[in-house]
Amino acid sequence: MTDLTVWLEATGAVSAAGGLGYAKIRAPRVYWSLVGMPVTWGRFALSYRSTMDVCGLTVQPSGLRAFMTRNVARREVQPVPPKVRRVRGTSTGLRVTLRLPAGLEPADLIASSERLRHAWGVHSVTVTETKPGYVELRMTGYDVLRRVRMPRGAQPRGMVVPVALREDGTAFERDYRAAPMALTLGANQSGKSMYQRNLIKGLAQLPVALVGIDCKRGVEQTAYASRLSALVTSPDDAASLLGVLVAEMEDRFDLLSRHGVSDLWELPESTRPVPVVVLVDEIAELFLISSKKDEERRERIVTALIRLAQMARAVGIHLEICGQRFGSDLGKGATMLRAQLTGRVVHRVNDKQTAEMGLNDLAPDAVPVASLIPMERPGTAVAADSSGGWSKIRTPNTTRDEVVAVCRAFAHLVPDLPVLAPFRPAAPVVPAPVAGPSLVKPRPVTP
Prior knowledge:
The structure is a single chain. Helices cover about 35% and strands about 20% of the residues. It is α/β, with parallel strands linked by helices. It has 2 domains: about 15-140, Threonyl-tRNA Synthetase, Chain A, domain 2, CATH 3.30.980; about 160-425, P-loop containing nucleotide triphosphate hydrolases (Rossmann fold). The strands form 2 sheets. The chain has a 10-stranded mixed β-sheet. It has a 4-stranded antiparallel β-sheet with strand order 1-2-4-3. The chain starts with a helix and ends in a 38-residue tail after the last helix. The relative contact order is 0.11. The model is unreliable at about 10-20 (pLDDT under 50).
């Protein structure tokens, strides 16, 4: 009986260890909740003060505190680390709220985030300022970008579209009111088209007008025609469409002037025009010319794009521009247009200069990260904005058929804009199933 008990206990221990090993690889959220989080929480609690001290994240106490410690408590005066206000666990990591003492700023913790990551044995540490004097350490226990799973609450709303997953486990959202114009760069097979798919999938569910400019003969955007208010597939048509959008922008400014407001969202809902999102698939096709006679068309396109990027935010017209490169080598007006694009997303690129085009003027620290994105991680990118902050993101794998199905399901949301009617694409015809031969073998009925 004793031998049987020992054998059962040993078998149970081996099975449990094997189950944890399997969960660590196939179900990292389960493994983190059962093993990783308690171990990391304990390591953090035991080594917090010493870790902050060796990382140079402590300051000398105030004179009053030093006096009370030395003369009342009869203890040696020690440097003061940031005070821990709150620690909470999540399915992907830990969130620690810190109160910064006088003499420390969030940049000090950001500079030491890599050392904190190694000290506490987590996958990454991201520092976010929540309010003056407070920061949040977002520790991620495992590589959440290896298998992307969007948070359940990440749903399109207002003018906000969740597009990807950040390295800290939160959703990266494309907020058109905060960053009305954006630029997405990436080499072939980097996941740039996947990013645009997720963007269109979210935008299709919102009451907005979608305008597509796809000069690759429409191979990327034609499938979404059921939800598009306009679609052009050649530079000549793009020039005409952009001219119409500039005229629409001017009419909307007249509307704002008549109501005495300066922003589309200040108008009464009954008179507020529908927002417009312009999706440019490959910006280089609008800039490059093959002969002298195309220069006039190029000037019209570039001028219209720059005018829209500079002023259209107030009237609810937004630009979403994609390309492989976007620098001065495209010609006159390229850098001026790029400077107006607030949001930046850079996927894997073929050279460092392309990463600098998208990130160097906003977040120089992110350029090396974008330059080292591996080829076997399509969809991984670096997202930055004018605040100077940046984050590593990855888009979920969304098939073309999924996006097409969403566009058809929300085709009724296509707004009635007469100015875009000449450019409205024909909705693709869904072929009816062809009746094939019956697979049921008939049997004679005998009386």
